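To: structure subgroup
Subject: Chain for Friday's discussion

All,

I'm putting the inputs and outputs inline so they're searchable in the archive.
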Amino acid sequence: MTAARTKALAPLLSLALLCAPPAAAQDEMSEAEAFVASNILHILLHEIGHAVIDQFALPVIGQEEDAADSFATLEVLTIYDDDVDILLDAAEAMLIMHDIAEAGGTPLDYFGVHDLDIQRGLRIVCHAVGIDPDRYDEAARWTEMDADQQQACAIEAETAIESWDALLEPYLREEGASAPPAPVTLEDSALPEMQTFLAESGMMADIASYVGETFRWPQVPALTAADCDEANAWYDPDRVEITLCYEFIDELFALAEQR
């Protein structure tokens, strides 16, 4: 990492490290469970990105979903900077979903609010390689990213970091300031194995601490896991609540079997 990128990353890093990552818990997981955990972390941070944009009325140029993806990836790179597998797993899930859709003949949704899964997965890799090309050199190889593209990713990632730092600075708590965690609810589920996995992983509690201690919210968003009759996750600005569906966790385990 160059000195310029290290300097750009520092403000996010100092605040993000207020909460302890669940890396130790992931060390005790199976390969499939660790893959699912990685994706849950990225998904929750993506939805927190939406909450940040809504609660602080941040300007967004382009698609908000792209901004939320960027937020999630950069926060993983700072909170969990010692665990390269988290972003690799999140990118791989996107690429697997693309392959499944392509094999099944599913039409590509060019007008969707999200970019195509393959674009989202490769952008995760792009930011990771752009910030830390040495640690993510394997990802650069399996995505066939040449030297010119790696340089372009370095510029793109640095721009994203500087932009998020400038937008978030007025709303960050002082380093070391304590605050209660975001409220967490794990509803009873028709998929008890998914509820148990989420509870035992400790991820929701870790993310709740991060949410409460990192930002000075007008209203702290709640975190809820629930049955939704769909594999999804979302931020509800009216309820100020992030919902993670147990069906989504179940789908992630199915994706893990496709690796």
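Points worth raising on Friday:
The first helix runs from residue 3 to 16.
The first strand starts at residue 184 and ends at 186.

D.
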